[in-house]
Design a protein that fits this description.
The chain has 286 residues and is α+β, with helices and mostly antiparallel strands. The chain has 6 helices and 13 strands. It is elongated.
Length: 286
């Protein structure tokens, strides 16, 4: 297990590098232990991997899907006391980018599959292990796998996700909705700001409203409430130019009872109220 996790960390499957090398490391591991793994590669560096471990040949046998992600978030070496992509074993712990989220989970599942494969007669059904690309960004690998899954495999009776949860079994998770709000105005020279419409100032009205707002919802018994976080802002092209464009990006974590459509309408209502008070306010949402 230690060797495998060191190899996966060294593959550095960040968004910039892609998951192809990590998928190949995992495929080699399975091959060495007599299991067949398939890799789906696209855009030269993106990759999904899956292993289909079949149980006894019985009609209507169930399938358990074990879902994981190959990618890790980037790491800046200056913020680490060790090299982030050279996993180090120290005091019984492995240190390296992704050892927790979630290369460690992948290694645990891969090792378990190798053990289970030695006793296939004990299986009550099939196990399908999928390690996909892009979970930390746009979930492109999961979306691609789902499209292929429907054509090849039976609907699973359950899904096991070996993400780090402090060794607690969790059976619910909030959803995610990422939105961008952009405002549009008129540029001018920085020495004559009165001739322009400054969109950094205009979007401030949106920031103030969202800072105080709560998305309508009923708390979930397992998940609690939903959340809204404004995590990125972009505006302006030069110190001496009045910005005619500004955008913010919002991370919303949703509950099962909420819909993206309803949340969008809620935000559109806020934008309409701002526009009603300011005729120069122009914004769109995507």
């Amino acid at each position: 297990m230690i060797t495998l996790i060191k190899q996966l960390v060294a593959a550095a499957p960040t968004p910039a590098n892609g998951e192809r090398q990590a998928a190949c490391v995992l495929k080699d591991f399975f091959s060495q232990h007599g299991l067949s793994a398939e890799i789906d590669i696209w855009d030269s560096k993106r990759a999904n991997l899956w292993v289909h471990l079949k149980g006894p040949d019985k009609p209507n046998r169930p399938t358990l899907l074990v879902a994981a992600h190959l990618d890790v978030v980037p790491a800046s070496a200056e913020n680490w006391s060790t090299s982030p992509f050279e996993a180090m074993l120290r005091d019984g712990r492995v240190y390296g980018r992704g050892t927790t989220d979630m290369l460690g989970g992948i290694v645990a599942v891969a090792t378990a599959l190798v053990e289970i494969a030695q006793h296939p007669d004990r299986l009550g059904g099939d196990i399908l292990f999928a390690a996909t690309a892009g979970e930390e960004t746009d979930s492109c690998g999961a979306k691609r796998f789902i499209q292929q899954y429907h054509r090849r495999f039976e609907k699973p009776v359950g899904v096991l996700i070996p993400e780090p949860t402090d060794l607690q079994i969790l059976r619910a998770h909030r959803g995610i909705l990422w939105l961008k709000i952009a405002t549009h105005g008129r540029t001018a020279h920085g020495s004559m700001p009165h001739l322009g419409i400054n969109e950094i100032l205009k979007i401030n009205a949106v920031l103030n409203r969202l800072k105080e707002a709560t998305i309508p919802h009923t708390p979930h018994p397992l998940l609690g409430g939903c959340s809204l976080s404004i995590n990125r802002i972009v505006g302006g092209t030069g110190t001496n130019i009045v910005p005619d464009y500004c955008e913010i990006e919002i991370d919303i974590r949703t509950l099962p009872s909420q819909t993206a459509e309803a949340i969008l309408e809620w935000i559109k209502t806020i934008l309409a109220e701002i526009a009603a008070d300011d005729p120069q306010f122009m914004a769109d949402i995507s």
